[in-house]
Structure formats: structure tokens, C-alpha cells
Design brief:
232 residues, four-stranded antiparallel β-sheet, 8 helices, alpha/beta, five-stranded parallel β-sheet
């Protein structure tokens, strides 16, 4: 795991058993590991060091994970570090809110270590800061992840929460086909909102709103796979 040698991961979790298990598995893969057992301690650790990735539990003493995440996103020293939320909370609205709020990924406890390691590897392959760029731009579309505003030129495009989440994921991966399964996973996987047919409806409405603003079609369907941003 030569590529992992230079990468350092901060585990923020007050559960000693899970933290020890994570540390052991990550060390075996060649990662450097640091630990924090509360939200307050995590912020102190981040004051003195900048890890390459953070694993964040939500149920923490003192400052909980939901309070720590925006602090990580806002602080100059930690801004741009990918944060994978690792939590037993499975509330879909909360999951969507955290992903929209800047978390790079969300893994539900109990998890398969092999899957978590794969998700960590994916995040660390991305260019630094790519996962949480405050402003995404593509072909005249500007999407601000801080304000959730989407505009084309000087005109604001009003999107639903689901349409915004779809567009953010597509614009964050502009040269790739985003599979239907990934879109469904990121947008409230276990709600009636996420059936295959309703996903098509949300994408169709999003395409229509963008097309009405400029007359251009910005999103293309890749038959049998998913969707991608349409190249110039």
C-alpha cells in the first residue's frame, strides 16, 4: 500500500472498541492514524495538524458530529479535508442534510471494513479539496455549496432540494457518468422519492429548468447506466 504511506486519517469516535478496530485496519493498509474522542478534542487536534481525511462519528460527547462538521468545513486549517461520516444513525433526511452540508460520504454502522476502506481510497484519489469546492461551475452554471444557490449568468435557477442534490453530484463529477444507483444512494435512498421512475422525473424537471434559462440541454442520459453533464 505504498500510496497510503503518506496519507494520514483522523478518527473522531468516542467508542474505544470501534476506534481501535479502525486504527488497526487503517494501520495495516499503511495509513497514519490520529484519534480524537470528542468534538472539542477533534477541533484541538485539527488546530495543530491537517489530516488527509477524517472519519467522523455523530454521537460524540460535548460537541456532537453534526456540530463539528460545519466547523471543519469553515475553519481555514481544515477546509477541504474530505469527511466521511460513520454513524449508526440511519435517518435518511439527516443523511441527505449532512451530504448537502459538505460531508464527502456517509457510511452506516455496522459497516464492512472492506467497503469503508474502498470509500476512503476513493476520497483520497480525488484532487485535494475537490469534494468540497464551495463553488462548482460548468458551462455557465454556477452552484454555490455554501448558499445552495444555482445561477445561470445573472439569473437564479430555483431548484427543489432533490434537484439541487442531483445537480451538485453531477457537477462535482463533470467528466464522469454518475450511475443511477449512486444518485439514489446519495438522495434519500429509503424514501418513496427514490424509485427509479421518480429519479427520472426529478432529472427531467432539472433538465427542463436549466433548458428554460438558456435553451441549452446540460444533462444527458447514458442509457442503462445513469447521467452526466453534457460536454460543450
Amino acid at each position: 500500500m505504498g500510496n497510503a504511506q503518506a496519507k494520514n486519517i483522523l478518527i473522531i469516535d468516542d467508542d474505544m472498541h470501534i476506534g481501535n478496530m479502525l486504527e488497526e485496519a487503517l494501520a495495516r493498509e499503511g495509513y497514519g492514524v490520529s484519534r480524537a474522542y470528542s468534538g472539542t478534542e477533534a477541533l484541538l487536534v485539527l488546530d495543530g495538524a491537517r489530516p488527509d481525511l477524517i472519519l467522523l462519528d455523530l454521537m460524540l460527547p460535548g460537541l456532537d458530529g453534526e456540530e463539528v462538521l460545519p466547523r471543519i468545513m469553515e475553519e481555514e486549517r481544515s477546509r477541504g479535508i474530505p469527511v466521511i461520516v460513520v454513524s449508526a444513525k440511519v435517518d435518511i433526511d439527516k443523511k441527505a442534510e449532512l451530504l448537502l452540508g459538505g460531508a464527502a460520504d456517509y457510511v452506516t454502522k455496522p459497516f464492512a471494513m472492506k467497503e469503508l476502506l474502498a470509500r476512503i481510497s476513493v476520497q483520497l484519489r480525488r484532487p485535494s479539496g475537490a469534494a468540497v469546492a464551495p463553488v462548482l461551475e460548468f458551462g455557465g452554471i454556477t452552484l454555490n455549496t455554501d448558499t445552495h444557490m444555482v445561477s445561470l449568468g445573472s439569473a437564479e435557477v430555483r431548484l427543489t432540494r432533490t434537484e439541487y442534490a442531483i445537480l451538485k453530484l453531477l457537477m462535482g463529477n463533470p467528466s464522469q457518468v454518475v450511475t443511477k444507483s449512486l444518485l439514489l444512494e446519495r438522495i434519500s435512498r429509503d424514501t418513496p422519492d427514490c424509485t427509479d421512475s421518480s429519479l427520472k422525473m426529478h432529472v427531467s424537471n432539472l433538465r427542463k429548468k436549466l433548458r428554460e434559462a438558456t435553451g441549452k440541454d446540460y444533462i444527458e442520459a447514458v442509457w442503462g447506466i445513469g447521467f452526466k453533464m453534457r460536454g460543450e
